[in-house]
Specification:
Mean pLDDT: 83
CATH topology of one domain: Lipocalin
Distance between the termini: 50 Å
CATH architecture of one domain: Beta Barrel
Low-confidence stretches: 1-5, 14-19, 21-26, 314-329
Length: 656
């Protein structure tokens, strides 16, 4: 199997790496970083070793062995994708390094790059040493054989599917195209994706897939035409990716024509070509394009008005863009705003600059120009326009421009964040609420804001029942039943890790609570780690996901105790209906505290479900978990060592 061979390589390479002396370096600082990295590696301090390897490579990027050592260290930290890239960097420096090539191939396969993995295994099974050829041959066959069988199976299926409108026909062509691409049979992949495009022209993302395959087949003009067509699609995501791949250069007329041959129903593309012809004083060609637009959509009022204006019909002329601005008598501002909304940043800049010339005091035009330059990745000009707009008399425009100006300028701004999970527990037959409103404020020292932020906080910790009878001495309280006012400082997140410390005062809101005073000092602090992998909740695509979270929290009012929690969730993200996102998952939780108190010593496992509806903002979802828990310390525990709990919750979080 692939994994077993990879494990052997890692083991052998790791032994060699630990035994290797420091790599000679002409730069003394790089050598010192390498020495520190190997020392940290020997102490199994892998995160520190990674940092020093990267510092050494920043000074000495041409050191292939350092790239490999960094890659093996990244494997130990679980960063397989980064390890793959380091092995690839080592190969660029030494293409004959078979160990690095094998590691790269194995990792490419594991990190969802099967095409690259298959190509590398194919090369190594033909050109490598005897041992390498044997390993590469088996790995290649493990990848290639299922693809060959799948291609044959779908080709046979297509013989049976005679109805082109049948969903099974489209699915068969799509699967065949995908497998052909994975097997590097690019002519077959292109043929099948072209068929998919004909069967479902509304699937605009196929344009970008075809562009990728045509590029590899050296059909460069067709590839560029497909990218241009995608950049003017009505689907925002496709248009965004197309614009990113096209670049900032404005297309030539013949490129528009070529793109329309591939995507003749693309009204945005055709309309832009019509306006371009008008700007070039080519009225007959423009008329032809507007006529074709009306043939596609007879209700297109903009094209109808423009065509009437060109034919001399006495109506109010529609907006006519030009290469250097809009034609006289048209609304350049509206045209610029429309171009910006459609993602045509360079067009928006031209029209909005003319609108600014027409009315230099229009703050909204200044704001839109800032966004247009920002979308065009020209942040220096964007900052200047946002700076002008933030002095506007309109408070809404000024606020938006000011926020954009400070964000682009790297300034720290005040921010309000809110989180408030609400949960019902069947174990306690109670509803619990935890929440915090936090207002962060920049420090007066700008350099300090790069590392820390100061904040004011209001926490709420409570439950509906407030307590349950426990023994003759008194009830057991299930929460603090308090508001906590405080101030704190938090570090910037580094490698998914954040530190924080907070001091405040806790005020109980239940008059009958006698376990604490009316107000007591409350000191908290700790470390928080959160990292997600795969298709997380809200992702556009379905697939596997993993979420890891860990907290180390000090709370003074719990006897100056440290509480450690680890929460892991893994499962599958899917979309039960349009724009809704759901997850089926499995929970694995662990809690421990330094004082070894029974209530803080638990292990929990069980299935769960989460749902994010289309109308919810990011960070909001419903959840249900069914867990089986075990107390790992039962000294002083008045209950059974095991418990079951059904938790139904609603989580809400946002920052503004």
């Amino acid at each position: 199997m692939i994994v077993s061979f990879r494990q052997l390589w890692i083991f052998a390479a790791a032994l060699a790496m630990l035994a290797r002396p420091a790599v000679p370096a002409s730069d003394e600082s790089a050598q010192q970083d390498l020495d520190t990295a190997y020392k940290a590696l020997g102490q199994k301090n892998y995160d520190s070793a990674v940092g020093f390897f990267r510092k050494a490579l920043a000074r000495q990027s041409g050191n292939a062995s350092t790239h490999k050592d960094l890659a093996y260290t990244l494997l130990k930290t679980g960063d397989n994708a980064e390890a793959r890239d380091e092995f690839e960097a080592a190969l660029h420096l030494n293409e004959h390094d078979e160990k690095a090539a094998l590691e790269y191939a194995f990792l490419a396969y594991e990190t969802q790059k099967p095409i690259e993995a298959r190509r590398m295994f194919d090369r190594l099974r033909k050109q490598g040493s005897t041992a390498t050829r044997a390993t590469a041959e088996q790995a290649f066959q493990n990848i290639d054989r299922p693809l060959a069988e799948g291609i044959a199976r779908w080709q046979q299926a297509l013989v049976r599917f005679t109805n082109p409108n049948d969903i099974s026909t489209f699915s068969a062509h799509w699967e065949l195209a995908h497998m052909a691409e994975l097997r590097d049979n690019l002519p077959l992949a292109a043929e099948q994706y072209e068929t998919c495009r004909k069967l479902k022209p509304q699937l605009s993302e196929v344009l970008l897939i075809l562009a990728r395959i045509w590029q590899q087949l050296n059909r460069v003009e067709e590839s560029r035409a497909a990218i241009l067509a995608a950049s003017r699609e009505s689907n925002p995501r496709t248009a965004e990716l197309g614009l990113e791949q096209w670049g900032t250069r404005y297309p030539y007329p013949y490129e528009f024509v070529k793109a329309l041959e591939i995507d003749p129903q693309n009204t945005g593309l055709r309309r832009e070509l019509a306006y371009l012809y008008l700007a070039m004083q080519k009225q007959p060609e423009a008329v032809e394009q507007f006529e074709k637009l009306l043939a596609i959509d007879p209700q297109d009022r903009l094209s109808r008005d423009q065509l009437d204006a060109l034919r001399g019909v006495k109506k109010k002329a529609a907006a006519v863009p030009a290469a250097t601005g809009a034609s006289p008598g048209v609304d350049a501002k509206k045209l610029g705003e429309k171009s910006l909304a459609l993602g045509y940043a360079r067009d928006a800049i031209r029209y909005l600059r003319q609108a600014h010339d027409d009315d230099p005091e229009d703050a909204q035009v200044m704001l839109k120009l800032g966004w247009a330059y920002n979308f065009a990745k020209d942040d220096q000009d964007a900052i200047q326009w946002f700076d002008r707009a933030r002095h506007a008399s309109n408070p809404k425009i000024a606020a938006e421009a000011s926020k954009a100006f400070h964000n682009l300028n790297g300034d720290a701004l005040p921010q309000t964040s809110v989180w408030s999970p609400l949960m019902y527990s069947s174990r306690w037959h109670d509803i619990f609420a935890y929440g915090q409103i936090k207002r962060s404020m920049p420090l007066p020292w700008k350099d300090m804001n790069k590392w820390f932020s100061f904040y004011l906080s209001t926490r709420f910790i409570g439950d509906l029942k407030s307590g349950i009878p426990q023994n003759p001495i008194g009830p057991q309280y299930l929460s603090d039943s308090a508001f906590i006012l405080g101030a704190g400082v938090s570090s910037k997140t580094w490698h998914h890790l954040t530190g924080w410390a907070e001091a405040g005062e806790s005020f109980k809101y239940l008059p009958f609570r006698h376990d604490v005073g009316a107000a007591i000092p409350d000191y908290r602090g700790g470390l928080n780690f959160v990292k997600g992998f795969g298709h997380l909740l809200g992702s556009e695509k379905s697939g596997l996901f993993l979420e890891d979270g860990a907290d180390a929290v000090y709370v003074s009012r719990y006897g100056k105790d440290w509480i450690f929690t680890i929460q892991n969730r893994a499962g599958w993200t899917f979309h039960p209906w349009d724009k809704a996102s759901a997850q089926v998952l499995f929970n694995a939780n662990y809690t421990h505290d330094l004082k070894n108190q029974y209530w803080a010593e638990t292990v929990e496992m069980g299935p769960g479900f989460r749902l994010h509806m289309p109308w919810m903002r990011p960070g909001v979802y419903f959840s249900t978990d069914l867990v089986r828990g075990v107390y790992t310390n039962n000294e002083g525990n008045p209950r059974r060592p095991n418990y079951d709990d059904i938790r139904v919750g609603f989580s809400y979080a946002f920052a503004k």
